[in-house]
Amino acid sequence: GSVVARLEEQAREARVNDSLLGVPRDLDPSDARRLMTHPFFYWVERMTVSYLQSHGGMVRRDGRVWHLTWPDGRVDAGMVFSVREAGDLPCARHLTMEEPRVRALVMGLTPFAPGQRIAVLRPGGIVREIRGYWSLWQISLVGRNEPESRRRRMMPLFLSDDGSVYLPTARHIWDQLLVENVVVHSMLDSQTSRDVFLRVRIAAEQHGEPVYNALVHEHRLFLEREGERVAQAFAARRRAIEQIALPQVRNHRLKSPGRRRN
After folding, report:
1. Cα angle at 185 between 182 and 186, to 5 degrees?
2. What would the pLDDT profile of 186-205 be if each residue is shown by its tens digit?
3. Are 72 and 51 in contact (CB under 8 A)?
4. Where are the beta strands (DSSP E) in the chain?
5. What one-character DSSP code corresponds to residue 156?
6. H or E segment at 53?
7. What span, in angstroms and rounded, lies between the C-alpha atoms of 70 and 6?
């Protein structure tokens, strides 16, 4: 009975979370069971705790519950993030995506944060000797007050354990992740994940620089074309005005009594 109740509760919460993320759908029993091991609740916990630690708030762990102090001074005591903990600790308050403060954090979140635990996968088509870290980066450039000129590229990256970067392998893994039902075998601990993230970010900055420079070049060409278009439009308008004005000026001068005639 308790297991069924927990599954029903998670199914209800998943519907709320899906609707917030723009993916409304009904869950079947197998979907609900998979939620028991889904890291979504851990993501919400890490997001909230990391935000408070970096924006002037305070966090304190007391056993299995959190005491949270928000930057504006509001205190939320006895908080838990997972349905399982909420069921085990009746006196705790369950903090979910329904909370406006938590939902607001999602709007400004980066896709990955240092310290977030990294999943260990074995996608198909990759020989076992190739081991390393795969990541997906978005490189974008937006002109000031020119949202229509936004340019972006997606860059998959594979950093091997020996420090080499294999871009073809990165693209292959990306393809496999899109078509395979990949199983998470384990999760790296938080400190290891943090160290790996820093290494991967350095590699991404190095290999992403040419991509960024290409975006800058494209944007400069766009500005040049826009400048030429505006100049041509202005010249055409000026010619049209001159064609209208010159006859009037000539007529005015011809009719002027002070005009000298030969």
Report:
1. 130
2. 888 888 988 999 999 999 99
3. no
4. 58-62, 65-69, 75-80, 93-94, 119-120, 132-143, 146-160, 186-187
5. E
6. helix 40-54
7. 29
Which run of H or of E encompasses 46? helix 40-54
Please write the tens of the pLDDT for every residue from 210-232: 999 998 888 888 888 888 888 88
Query: How far is residue 258 from each of residues 211, 255, 261, measured CA to CA in Å?
Result: 69, 9, 9
Instruction: Put the strands of the sheet holding 75-80 in their side by side order.
Output: 58-62, 65-69, 75-80, 93-94
Which of 90-94, 149-153, 185-189 has the weakest average pLDDT?
Answer: 149-153
Would the pTM of this model clear 0.70, i.e. be above it? no
Confidence class for position 158, pLDDT limits 50, 70, 90: very high
Please check the confidence at residue 18 and state whether its pLDDT lies above 50. Answer: no
Helix axes 40-54, 100-107, angle to 10 degrees: 80
The rounded distance, in Å, linking the Cα atoms of 29 and 38 is 14
pLDDT value of position 79: 92
3-state helix, strand, coil in the chain (%, to 5): 50, 20, 30
